[in-house]
């Protein structure tokens, strides 16, 4: 498709703004989470504020990807952006935690269209030789999203209120909408394929059962209760049915034959595991600072800032290194750095100097930043223009699925560890055991007797430190997957230019 160079700049600006808006949403909400809980209550539903968005985003991603192949990318990018902005407005108007979770679902459905369709449009309109630049740009966008999100969320929450962290999406979304609508003219050619509604429904139902079981198990219901066992059983049956259907339908939402390429398969596994590990830090560091150290929302955002700045730096550095060595070598080295950072965080407590905590966050951020750029390039390495959209959607799906599982799974573990440590102490009041949101509110902390506050703070920080220790497990597994990626590397000028039909 021939496009004027000037138009390309506007199109890329619009697509990057759309991706930035959706990517920033999780981080901007993370630093406001304590204020949301303080206002709306529902500490036991904390993880669903993030999980609801991610589950909806994941469910919408393959469906929007397939629809954009059939009917065109522009209309579904715009539809997703409008739906995302509508969800943002509603989230800012929520009067209860239940309403907020419902509106986050609407946001997530819209967000499911933005990142994969943005990347697909980029690969549609650029040459293969420019993929290295795209990788660096992606690292910058994801890094900027995680840098800007905590700071914007912290300052808005402290100086305005938590509702405004959702409304900030509107001006960014409108700018992206205007740029893409005005300057992007897509090709009228689209591959006509049937929509895999069977697979989509089975997939959404399976993931829903799995996530609900993780959220309620060990908290509202025992793990061996009939309800939880039934949910896990339904997940197993529905997911098995999904796999069966995907092998039979002519146009599956996930093309399993693509996983025959070892680099593609291992990149997706690494994206899943690194996403699982990374999201734990972005969710629990603000709570650690506010609840454990008595910091404000701004302090929690500033502690996250070094980690997010480090992701930008490592995204640029790793993008450059793709010209010099293999994807595997780059990812292996950076993942080792990430594991070292997580291990240092696991050794932290309420008395750890904030400067040391900032250093640990920087190390972890520098290690994880490469995954945003390098894995995106590795995922599309073996595929031409028509296949890059499917490859991108798959990688985005597995990264977000890993984040969703990480939030829910580690949320269950943290609640269990916190309750266990609180119950070990006889001098902790029952109201803190039932609803510990007072630890996140500076005013409420002042009304808690010093001895009780010290006990509760130690229980909170110990539980989060243990979470960081467990977080090393998915990071180590990611390292194993990276070790099996192979020796492929980005060769810009002589890369394969085949435009084969997407494998089924």
From TrEMBL:
<dbReference type="InterPro" id="IPR004638">
    <property type="entry name" value="EmrB-like"/>
</dbReference>
<feature type="signal peptide">
    <location>
        <begin position="1"/>
        <end position="24"/>
    </location>
</feature>
<feature type="transmembrane region" description="Helical">
    <location>
        <begin position="467"/>
        <end position="487"/>
    </location>
</feature>
<feature type="transmembrane region" description="Helical">
    <location>
        <begin position="227"/>
        <end position="245"/>
    </location>
</feature>
<dbReference type="InterPro" id="IPR020846">
    <property type="entry name" value="MFS_dom"/>
</dbReference>
<feature type="transmembrane region" description="Helical">
    <location>
        <begin position="359"/>
        <end position="385"/>
    </location>
</feature>
<feature type="transmembrane region" description="Helical">
    <location>
        <begin position="46"/>
        <end position="64"/>
    </location>
</feature>
<feature type="transmembrane region" description="Helical">
    <location>
        <begin position="101"/>
        <end position="123"/>
    </location>
</feature>
<keyword id="KW-0472">Membrane</keyword>
<dbReference type="InterPro" id="IPR036259">
    <property type="entry name" value="MFS_trans_sf"/>
</dbReference>
<keyword id="KW-0813">Transport</keyword>
<protein>
    <submittedName>
        <fullName>MDR family MFS transporter</fullName>
    </submittedName>
</protein>
<feature type="transmembrane region" description="Helical">
    <location>
        <begin position="329"/>
        <end position="347"/>
    </location>
</feature>
<feature type="transmembrane region" description="Helical">
    <location>
        <begin position="266"/>
        <end position="289"/>
    </location>
</feature>
<feature type="transmembrane region" description="Helical">
    <location>
        <begin position="76"/>
        <end position="95"/>
    </location>
</feature>
<keyword id="KW-1133">Transmembrane helix</keyword>
<feature type="transmembrane region" description="Helical">
    <location>
        <begin position="201"/>
        <end position="221"/>
    </location>
</feature>
<feature type="transmembrane region" description="Helical">
    <location>
        <begin position="162"/>
        <end position="181"/>
    </location>
</feature>
<feature type="transmembrane region" description="Helical">
    <location>
        <begin position="135"/>
        <end position="156"/>
    </location>
</feature>
<feature type="transmembrane region" description="Helical">
    <location>
        <begin position="397"/>
        <end position="418"/>
    </location>
</feature>
<dbReference type="Pfam" id="PF07690">
    <property type="entry name" value="MFS_1"/>
</dbReference>
<keyword id="KW-0812">Transmembrane</keyword>
<feature type="transmembrane region" description="Helical">
    <location>
        <begin position="301"/>
        <end position="322"/>
    </location>
</feature>
<dbReference type="InterPro" id="IPR011701">
    <property type="entry name" value="MFS"/>
</dbReference>
<keyword id="KW-1003">Cell membrane</keyword>
<feature type="domain" description="Major facilitator superfamily (MFS) profile">
    <location>
        <begin position="11"/>
        <end position="490"/>
    </location>
</feature>
<keyword id="KW-0732">Signal</keyword>
């Amino acid at each position: 498709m021939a496009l004027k160079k000037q138009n390309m700049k506007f199109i890329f600006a619009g697509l990057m703004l759309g991706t930035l808006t959706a990517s920033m949403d999780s981080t901007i909400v993370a630093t406001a989470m304590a204020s949301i809980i303080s206002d709306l209550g529902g500490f036991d539903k904390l993880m669903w504020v993030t999980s609801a968005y991610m589950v909806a985003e994941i469910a919408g991603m393959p469906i929007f990807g397939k629809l954009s192949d059939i009917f065109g990318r522009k209309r579904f990018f715009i539809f997703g952006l409008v739906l995302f902005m509508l969800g943002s407005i509603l989230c800012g108007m929520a009067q209860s935690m239940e309403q907020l979770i419902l509106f986050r679902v609407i946001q997530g459905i819209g967000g499911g269209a933005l990142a994969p369709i943005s990347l697909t449009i980029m690969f549609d309109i650029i040459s293969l030789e420019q993929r290295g630049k795209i990788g660096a740009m992606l690292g910058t966008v994801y890094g900027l999203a995680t840098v800007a999100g905590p700071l914007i969320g912290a300052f808005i929450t402290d100086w305005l209120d938590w509702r405004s962290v959702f409304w900030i999406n509107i001006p960014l979304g409108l700018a992206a909408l205007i740029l893409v609508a005005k300057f992007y003219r897509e090709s009228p050619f689209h591959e006509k394929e049937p929509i895999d509604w069977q697979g989509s429904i089975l997939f959404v139902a399976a993931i829903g059962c799995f996530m609900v079981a993780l959220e309620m198990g060990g908290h509202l219901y025992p793990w061996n209760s009939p309800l939880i066992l039934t949910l896990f059983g339904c997940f197993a049956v529905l997911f098995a049915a999904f796999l069966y259907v995907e092998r039979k339908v002519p146009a599956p939402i996930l093309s399993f034959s693509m996983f025959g390429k070892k680099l593609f398969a291992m990149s997706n596994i690494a994206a899943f595991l690194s996403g699982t590990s990374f999201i734990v830090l972005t969710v629990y560091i603000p709570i650690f600072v506010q609840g454990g150290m008595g910091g404000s929302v701004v302090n929690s955002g500033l502690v996250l800032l070094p980690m997010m700045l480090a992701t930008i730096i490592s995204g640029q550095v790793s993008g450059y290194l793709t010209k010099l060595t293999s994807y595997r070598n780059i990812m292996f080295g950076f993942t080792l750095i990430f594991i070292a950072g997580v291990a240092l965080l696991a050794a932290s407590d309420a008395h750890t100097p904030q400067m040391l905590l900032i250093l640990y966050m920087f190390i972890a951020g520098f290690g994880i930043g490469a995954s945003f750029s390098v894995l995106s390039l590795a995922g599309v390495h073996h595929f031409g223009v028509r296949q890059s959209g499917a490859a991108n959607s798959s990688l985005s799906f597995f990264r977000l699925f890993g984040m969703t599982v990480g939030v829910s799974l580690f949320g269950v573990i943290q609640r269990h560890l916190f309750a266990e440590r609180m119950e070990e102490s006889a001098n902790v009041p029952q109201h803190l055991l039932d609803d510990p949101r007072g630890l996140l509110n500076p005013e409420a902390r002042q009304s808690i007797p010093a001895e009780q506050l010290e006990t509760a703070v130690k229980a909170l920080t110990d539980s989060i430190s243990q979470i960081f220790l467990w977080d090393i497990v998915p990071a180590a597994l990611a390292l194993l997957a990276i070790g099996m990626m192979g020796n492929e590397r980005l060769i810009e000028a002589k890369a394969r230019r085949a435009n084969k039909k997407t494998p089924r």
